[in-house]
Fold this protein.
Amino acid sequence: MLKDKFYPWADKINPDLAVCWSTLWGLGTLKAPGTWGSALGVLFYCMFFSQLNIVAFLLFAAVFAYLAAAVCDVAERELGERDPGMVNLDEFVAMPLCFAPICTSSYNGLWLAVGFAIFRILDIRKPAFISKLQDVGGGAGIVLDDLCAAAITGVAVNALYYVVQSFA
């Protein structure tokens, strides 16, 4: 089992607490839970990640993704369903990566909205290569597809940002 190899300590997480964390303290029970998780992720980016240099940004993102995979794994087992829709910690953790390329550049609400929209489209539509990552299973599968969508979004936002800047 993947969790035994990468996060064997996850069994020590209280299952009820894992469900609470993985649903962002109940936001996952609202309609469009992924959108709520993503919106909170944008806020998290603005308040925390946007202040970091790229090395610290990527380091914190990796640590948060690793922890989220473990928490989501426990929550998935507790809820008894594969990649439960109410689990939105994955969107929250992935969302800041949409803006990694511009974390040290000027950004505004427009770029945040563009990144948010592209990420949500990729997360909802899940092109084949993104949906395949869910086949990994467990918490890793829950988080990996969102990290991939966020990485693609980051490339797209960065490209659009520099194209627009070149014409400004």
About this structure: The chain has one domain: 2-167. The CA atoms of residues 37 and 76 lie 17 Å apart.
